[in-house]
Amino acid sequence: MKRLAMPALAGALLFLSLASAQAVEILRWERLPLAVPLVVGQERVVFIDRNIRVGVPPGVGEHLRVQSAGGAIYLRASQPIPPTRLQLQDVESGALILLDIAAEPAKAGQPALEPVRIEGDAAATRYGAVGTSSGAGPNVEEDAPRDGAASSPASPLTAARKRETPVPVVLTRYAAQNLYAPLRTVEPVPGIGRVNLRRDLALDTLLPTLPVRAQALAAWRLEDRSVTAVRLTNTSGRWLDLDPRALQGDFVAATFQHPTLGPAGQSADTTVVYLVTRGRSLADSLLPRISRIDATVNLPPAGAAGAAGIAEGARDEK
To answer: Which string of DSSP letters, residue by residue, matches 190-203?
Structure first.
């Protein structure tokens, strides 16, 4: 009996050791920070199965090695780290997952920490989501077939063009949250992505009637629409009223973060305008590259005639 019991006991111990070695701690993301303790000198793997960016607070990166590959994050602390919060951001949707880490020295006989798997869909399921209903609704995109063109109400193309909220509204809201709200409160939008933007983009023609200085800050794209956040700074000593009709360019929508600008030097002298364009970037939507209006139409008759005469004289000289 003893001879038979010993191999059975050894097999059970081997099975338990293999099971513990392959164990994975499951954490579910429900918008509450997830605790992931670390041990100094040990690497801990966090599986999340999505393409993400990791935000590490300054001062912690010197003692924490962070690597991301194939939907997994590899964390290794080189010395003790006080409780710190990391931000994991989904590259595609912008959704955030918060991790609370703390690294402590290893204790005698302490087993290695098992990997962690984070479950839970962080993507938005309502705001900005594509609708699936086949009937015509109030939020059908404006690029639907026109001029009486027939289309099947149940076609996939028609359904894909319907959203719970119009795309310009989704883009403007997302840009405003990224600039003015804490990142953990930014509502994720599937399909939205950051766009490369020239910081030295000339914006002198954007608001030519107002004494403001404009600078492009950031841009995002969703489907064929783009939104660009432009900072406006008052350079005069008086209050300015902001009117979207004064903007010069080819824009689908324009929204000011604040309706007025205070005098230069005050805390209210700066705001942001969100410019939504369609099918092109902001640089290609500004004057004089794009203009749907013939400027000569607004000239007085005498001025228009004079301009025409000058043009004809120039052609005769040639």
So the answer is: TT-EEE---TT---
Which residue in 171, 122, 137, 193 sits closest to 277, CA to CA?
171
Question: Is 150 among the domain residues?
Answer: no
Number of structural domains, the chain?
Answer: 2
251 is a domain residue: yes
Q: Which helix (H) or strand (E) holds 13?
A: helix 2-21
Coil, helix or strand for 236?
coil
Same domain, 272 and 199: yes
Amino acid, single-letter form, for residue 135 = G
User: 7 pairs with which residues across the strands?
Assistant: none
Rg (CA), the chain: 29
What span, in angstroms and rounded, lies between the C-alpha atoms of 18 and 235? 70
The whole-chain average pLDDT of the chain stands at: 78
Establish if 77 belongs to a structural domain: yes
Beta bridge partners of 104: 39
| Model confidence pLDDT, tens digit, residues 88-131 | 988 777 788 999 999 999 888 888 889 999 987 654 444 555 55
| 161 located within any domain | no
Question: Does 285 lie in the same domain as 186?
Answer: yes
What global pTM score does this model have?
0.53
